[in-house]
Design goal:
Beta-Lactamase; 3-stranded antiparallel β-sheet; 2 domains; elongated; 7 helices; Arc Repressor Mutant, subunit A
Length: about 230
């Protein structure tokens, strides 16, 4: 399914596997019931949430599932929307929908960054206990990417407390000068993931941050509900 672009119909599965269509139908129904496949509104089938811990290819499918939510954020905000997940001590970008503006933020899918200096990273760290956060930054260090980067564990923990209170993280030029990012964690997801909106500080102004944060929180709730609905009981 991954090599086919993420989804296949029953007849396509039968043709690719060489199995009779009735056999494919029974197998697919069983795999849907167990969470290894899911049926989309188009009646095509995609990898299900039970497969996410089993490999990188399945993990990338999370980006496919999140894309409608990222698309909606781009339409609402007009800036680039991202999905990222915490993998080990780093954050990896899983999916991105670019802004329609010619001047826009671009982060290559698959890129890994340290969590202390990015919006998605701080959003994800805010879901962890303090001891675990200290262990992560002790292993990674907290190098300054710009003059605004938080570089001490105590300052980071203070900032994470603010993030928990307001519900969203802000990267105000901490990873790259002139860039602002707003991010939120996605609760109850099969993987520790966060979504964000990023853009030039001149367009994604401080006056817009609270509204963007509310949109992200709503989108994260919707994505979490969708992922829980896909997961077997």
């Amino acid at each position: 399914m991954v090599s086919a672009g993420g989804t296949l119909g029953l007849s396509e599965l039968a043709a690719r596997s060489g199995l009779p269509l009735p056999t494919i139908h029974r197998l697919v129904r069983t795999m849907v019931n167990r969470g290894y496949l899911r049926q989309e509104p188009s009646r095509r089938y995609a990898l299900g949430p039970r497969l996410i811990p089993l490999g990188d290819a399945a993990g990338r499918m999370l980006g496919t599932w999140a894309r409608p939510h990222l698309d909606a954020l781009v339409q609402q905000v007009g800036e680039t929307a991202n999905l990222a997940m915490l993998e080990g001590d780093s954050v990896v970008y899983v999916a991105q929908v670019p802004s329609p503006h010619s001047m826009r933020m671009f982060t290559e899918v698959g890129r890994r960054v340290l969590p202390h200096c990015t919006g998605v990273g701080k959003a994800l760290l805010s879901t962890l206990p303090a001891d675990e956060i200290r262990q992560i930054v002790r292993r990674t260090g907290m190098p300054a990417q710009t003059e605004k980067t938080i570089t001490t564990p105590d300052d980071l923990l203070t900032e994470l407390g603010r993030i928990r209170e307001r519900g969203y993280a802000i990267d105000d030029g901490e990873q790259e000068m002139g860039v602002r990012c707003v991010a939120v964690p996605v609760g109850d997801s099969p993987l520790p993931v966060a979504i964000s909106v990023s853009g030039p500080s001149g367009r994604l102004t401080t006056e817009r941050v609270a509204d963007v944060g509310r949109l992200l929180l709503r989108s994260a709730d919707e994505l979490a509900v969708a992922l829980r609905a896909e997961s077997p009981a």
